[in-house]
Amino acid sequence: MSDRAVSARLRDEARSLDAADELRAKRAEFVLDDTVYLDGNSLGALPAQVPGRVADVIARQWGELRIRSWDESGWWAAPERIGDRIAPLVGAAPGQIVVGDSTSVNVFKALVGAVRLARGEEGGHPGAGASGGAGHPGEGRDEIIVDATTFPTDGYIAQSAARLTGCRLTPLAPADVPAAVSSRTAAVLLNHADYRTGRLHDLPSLTAAVRAAGALAVWDLCHTAGALPVGLDAHGVDLAVGCTYKYLNGGPGSPAYLYVREEHQARFDSPLPGWTSHVEPFGMRPEFEAAQGVTRGRVGTPDILSMLALEAALDVWDGVAVEAVRAKSLALTDFFLRCVAAYVPKGRVESITPEAHAERGSQVALRCEGAGDVMKRLIERGVVGDFRAPDVLRFGFTPLYVSFADAERAARVLAETLDA
Amino acid sequence: MSDRAVSARLRDEARSLDAADELRAKRAEFVLDDTVYLDGNSLGALPAQVPGRVADVIARQWGELRIRSWDESGWWAAPERIGDRIAPLVGAAPGQIVVGDSTSVNVFKALVGAVRLARGEEGGHPGAGASGGAGHPGEGRDEIIVDATTFPTDGYIAQSAARLTGCRLTPLAPADVPAAVSSRTAAVLLNHADYRTGRLHDLPSLTAAVRAAGALAVWDLCHTAGALPVGLDAHGVDLAVGCTYKYLNGGPGSPAYLYVREEHQARFDSPLPGWTSHVEPFGMRPEFEAAQGVTRGRVGTPDILSMLALEAALDVWDGVAVEAVRAKSLALTDFFLRCVAAYVPKGRVESITPEAHAERGSQVALRCEGAGDVMKRLIERGVVGDFRAPDVLRFGFTPLYVSFADAERAARVLAETLDA
């Protein structure tokens, strides 16, 4: 078949797939142009609801009501309220997610908190004293295991958490965790999907292995929340964190979130006990007493503008089942890989994203010579992915707004770019 | 003189003072109504520049440029760029302030960092190992002193920093610090102004006493930055933090900032070493190596919407000298206290804010029976201050938009409210 005929057939197929796509109407809820935007795994596109909502938050809630908005506009309760909006997307019952701070800060809370839980340290009261928890059942646990292939910030923060809690840090490939986790392990920090390769790790079995050893499983959901079912409650995850600016489209640097499994909340002992995590924040008491529930994962004054932009962005999830998102995500990445195979001469790129659906997140990573330059040229031609050193082209597929026609065009422009 | 005549005279005086006020034109740069807004020490009023700027950040920078804005719209450099806008307001040369995270999180960075600096621990590299710094000159320093009258979050976070660094925590009244600080003290955390009474603490002499003992002075500027000269560089302050939503008008929960004195930056070893504080953030290297300069005070991805709202808010400072702000602030609080004395029957309220200018911040706190109810009624009548348990009425005076007429009206309505 001629190149032209191949292309015509793939374009036809894209049209059919788009026509049958039950999520296709969602695209209209985003501000998009004729760019093929495959960088939603770095910064999600702008949901159309956001500008008006933020304008109201600024002009009316801040500008007119001012301080009264902490009550009257629901500012104070936003971290838990928005947490409950994220909860169904990651398989969590209400009351276990609090929004605020960056992912890195939440990794710190989660890891130090996990070490303390694993050691059975008493916390949440001022007499807790120095670390060590002498005499507690988990006293001997002095190891944090971290995904060696992790997005670097998790590793840096894990290093700091280990240093401050007197643990050693053991970096391991996720597949090696079940054999390595032991009665010395306090906590294991894993990424649900590898930011570079797009590999999806097996959350249920890894969590089970960690818990079987008496350690706590802490998951970073940055690259999966909003792209596929996570099942935090169902799979027994202890703690989790995630950002909201990728598949959740919360905007640049929008607040992250922390999940604390209900059974751990009463003993969760945050290393960042700010005034808004106090049981009586306006009592202004000198002694700290932690709030009940996931509120103890809060720290300082919530960042309202960014938080309410995120809340508006979450409206696009109304009526959307994560299972449908996952089905489309896999269909999109399958189709993109087929188009790449059809268009790009053999040997020019190599997919490092697993073929097996069970091992694939919602991105495709292609190893490619001169990847940095190639991505620059792709962007000039209206196909936006990103480059990760030294040689990876990343293409993220956000099922709510990426079409099969986008996938076909991206592969075609990639081939043309490599040919030029 | 009759009540009516007293009132007429004070109103005349307010008019004269407002007419002579060199900052009076600044009021037009804020969105205000006929409310007397004396709660800018909790949430600053909306600067008129903000709505349009944020609309552009959302619609064009995020909505159109999307991921490209990290470079093209200057998102990446915002934390240091905006830090340099705050610097002259607190007496800091450029390159020493980074914006991001909440005040509480910055207190944690500053205090743990200060303890490590005091102990001479080597940091900023992955081999730093567990705390202790055996053999270093400051090894024996195992005490953090904290302002016992502090805004509670500082005390809670100081407790956590002490626990994680193996220090004991000593709460003291600021005046007792010089006698107590010793060769065992690593760091002292003080509030520049007391959030409840409005008392201004003597930053130069307290800093000198702390440094003379070989400890580090960490100041919380929440209640003074933007209200009076601070002089961080001139007075030898080691580290400082502050929020930006009070006298800096950055918006609800806007990002806080961290000041790291230039001489400490090369050894500043943050307990929250996120990916954006790495020397090569896009190198995605597994080993942490801290960036040069104050950038090592960063943690995760900067919260752009809130940060750029703050940047727009700082435009109101163009052409404003902090000394002029301070002069007006003192004149306003003096005048308000005179009006209260003239209007309110003796014994109904008692000022707990010091009379001496050198000991007064930019608020007046009045002890009053039934203060909670009184404040509710004041707010209903268009005079907005706030209530701090158990019996304090707080009135904050933001010189950029509060007028002498506001001060007179607030005192008059207070008297009427107490009379009713």
From TrEMBL, chains A, B:
Its cofactor is pyridoxal 5'-phosphate. Pathway: Cofactor biosynthesis; NAD(+) biosynthesis; quinolinate from L-kynurenine: step 2/3; Amino-acid degradation; L-kynurenine degradation; L-alanine and anthranilate from L-kynurenine: step 1/1. Its EC number is 3.7.1.3. It is an enzyme of class 3 (hydrolase). Coiled coil: none annotated. Keywords: Hydrolase, Pyridine nucleotide biosynthesis, Pyridoxal phosphate. It holds the Pfam family KYNU_C. It catalyses: 3-hydroxy-L-kynurenine + H2O = 3-hydroxyanthranilate + L-alanine + H(+); L-kynurenine + H2O = anthranilate + L-alanine + H(+). GO terms for molecular function: kynureninase activity. InterPro entries: Kynureninase, PyrdxlP-dep_Trfase, PyrdxlP-dep_Trfase_major, PyrdxlP-dep_Trfase_small. The modification N6-(pyridoxal phosphate)lysine is found at residue 246. It comes from the Bacteria. Pyridoxal 5'-phosphate binds at residues 103-104, 151-154, 220, 223, 245, 275, 301. SUPFAM superfamilies: PLP-dependent transferases. Catalyzes the cleavage of L-kynurenine (L-Kyn) and L-3-hydroxykynurenine (L-3OHKyn) into anthranilic acid (AA) and 3-hydroxyanthranilic acid (3-OHAA), respectively. Homodimer. Belongs to the kynureninase family. This is Kynureninase. The gene is kynU.
